[in-house]
Amino acid sequence: MHTLERYPDSNIFAIPILSKFLLYAPLHHLAALVDLTAARRLRDSLLAGAPIAHEPLNDIARLLASDAEAERAPSPKRGDFIPPFLGLLPTRGCNLACQYCGFLTPQESWQVMDLELARDAVNWYVDVTSRAGLQHVEIHYFGGEPFCAEEVVDLTVHLARTRAAEAGGTVRFEVTTNGTFSEKRCRWAADHLDTIVLSLDGPADVHDHHRPYPDGRGSFEAAARSARILSEGSADLFLRACVTSETVERLPQIAAWFCEHFRPRGVCFEPLQPSAPSRTVQLEPPDPWAFAHNFIQAARVLESHGVEPVYAAADIQARRVTFCPAGQDVAIVSPDGTVSACYLLQRDWEARGLDLRLGRVADGTVQLKADAVASARDLNVHNKPLCARCFCKWHCAGGCHVNHTPAGPPGDYDRLCVQTRIITLRNVLKAMDQHDLAWAWLQEREAVARSVCQPSDLLLDLEETP
Amino acid sequence: MNGTLIYRCTPSIAWVRDASQTLAVNEETGQSWTLRGVEAVVWDLLTAGYAYHRIVTLLALIFSLSAAEAEQTLASLLRRWQETDLVRVSEEAKDGESDHQCSV
Amino acid sequence: MANLTISAVCNQRCPYCFTADHLNGAGPSQHFLDSGDFEARLDFLDRSGIDQARLLGGEPTLHPQFSALVERARGRNKTIVVFTNGLIPAASLACLENLPATACSVLVNVNETARMSTSEAGEAIFERQRATIRRLGERAMVGFNVYRPDFRPEFLLPLIAETGCRPAVRLGLAHPCLSGENRYVCPHQYVAIGQKIVRFARRAADAGVRVEFDCGFVRCMFAEQDLETLTALGADVGWRCNPILDVGLDGQVIHCYPLSRLGGLPLTPQTDAPALRKAFESRARPYRQAGIFRECSTCPFKVSGVCPGGCLAATMRRFRHTPFALVCDSQRDGRPASARSPRLKPGVRPETSQEAAP
Known about the structure:
Chain A is of the alpha/beta class. Chain A has helices at about 35-50, 55-65, 105-110, 115-130, 150-165, 185-190, 205-210, 220-230, 250-260, 275-280, 290-305, 345-350, 370-375, 395, 415-430, 435-445, 445-455, and strands at about 15, 20-25, 30-35, 85-90, 135-140, 170-175, 195-200, 235-245, 265-270, 310, 330-335, 340, 355-360, 365-370.
């Protein structure tokens, strides 16, 4: 492979798609289908700095060679700590006992954030963003189940709205919820919040199996009722379905069922993240190839209904160095006042040798440690060798820093990488209106494997790819 | 029950929460109210089912008021709404109502 | 303008039908309008200065005396406008065929399901509609109601070409009845629908077909550029929501079918359309401060009167009815409740809020 020190441009990629190559340079806003000969000529032109006789190819070569035509590569945060959004965990408690949930422990579960602590966190956030001249603020609620601490949500929504209005700005609210609240609370959410991510794993047989109440009753009826109400409301509804090895082949049918019964803005299909509880009940994540294949089929169903399919790591509009809040300067406030870069449990970070605490809410404000902020900012794709030569790197950014930590060399892709690369390739081809090609490619497992398993996607490494 | 007031939503009131205000309408008379700022917040807390003293606590936190100021704000609002018939007040509790919010 | 319901019976079951609230309760004695009552309807049109007799249902052409009613309306120099599903009995179809094209306009609502259906029944419906439109020729215009975001109206273009009907498509957005029991598109789907409409309008223009908008479209569902495109293509673009004045079989006049549950006003020998319109506008005024989106009340298009904020029925469905009773006991010691939230017991939510009694 060419060393990246000698050829600093690591943002031009060539991926085999059946008999062609997808030339992909996201920072140059370029995607093109070329044959192997053309790809080699482009590579040689870039290496030698020499023009190509063939005019259309030469245009591409000129574009790729020009720094002026490219976006700057995304870089880690620097300077003042200005959160793009404030994360609030009103409680880690939850009224469900989902089979795969690794979030809850007896000691941490049931604390609810004090109202004064919540007030201080919101006030600090609005002050920080106001001083930075930002007109728009966002608050995201996670849990546990945020609506198990309704009063905290009510307080902070009204406080943030009041403070934003005083500053002449706007505020958006997003919540991730199990949707089992009362109908009244559901309508409140539809009226007051902007984005609602509601966990609904599929029809009743799937959902009730995965997400029962502690007494074993299924929660489908309540969640589905909420999804129906929210479908008509003003908030953007995203249905979020956890996918296991048992349900992966049903994704297209589940997608159709979602479209028939609800009116979401989007549907997120997320592969199961293994946890101790999921292992106990023998719930397994789906095979990545099966997940990618079925996700894409489900995506076609959703798109035909005007519903956005979401697999966040494959968002080709994204330009980022970190996939999750950690590294984005997001402040996530836990019920006990700890401010962290991540909403996962501390024991999970510690298991990976990470400390993602940034500070705490104290004395009426948020006190952050500069070295903790710096450490969080170091969690970015520039420090992930695995991603160095992957065409997904500015979209996926290496995935979750806690749950996705493969230590292999460039190209040593794991299951997450495989499904992300397949779905991202499909998304690029779709953006190019190459639907037929994408479909034909997906039907040939060997062709997909060739695309997905090449250790380096760099155009400059084309000849040396085994 | 001496000194106990009960504020009830006037019958036939329908309301909608918009981006920056709450609009309430009496569907029988056509009278309407546009509630902004603290009015919209109080209306929201009332319709969410909060008890009197929780509303006072929340108002104090949201608007940086003392408890007394928050209580005065709430009382003043309720009086004004009573005058414009957005809410109605009675002096006795119905059976089953005690010192917390209940919906009728 | 006023629509006269002459039939509560229909030979289709369109999922979006907005008469669901109004007609579902009709008893056996109210299937068709009595001819004497039809005369009263014509009187109403005369004193209102309306020169169109707009006939509605159910399916209006199923009325056993359809031809006679049309003749009476023509006797009063009314232009006949019929809203139909195209499954017209032979006698009624012959009646319409015999009317001069300048005096007759038949809007045939064609559903995609009929075209797309693989069942014999679905194919048969579409063939009948096609035959009807062919026979009516330039009297007919095709209507299409968008009730799901994955709509595909392109099949209408060859239909228009081969039947010789008016080169136009009247696009409608399926709106909710107040009960919400019909199938409709939600406002948050409007932008995506708007983009599809623009694509369709381009293809229609290539085929020499114009697009017209029914009521309830909103300004913000189209980007500025798309609006310019539609205008350039000759589309009849409009943001309308007004009292239609649907006159029911029972002599009650309602704002429009989706709002039938709002109540109606009686049709008396004295009432006329302008007065009724004014009365309904007055009734609707409090709700009109809002719109179908949260942002409507402060939207510059709405504030300036360009856009009314979408379908009033959709707007009214956003309104809540939440009775409450706040007990204020001045005998308490005045201590406010603690700002410290209670510890959450497993499986129990905090006691600060209660569910409304059903």
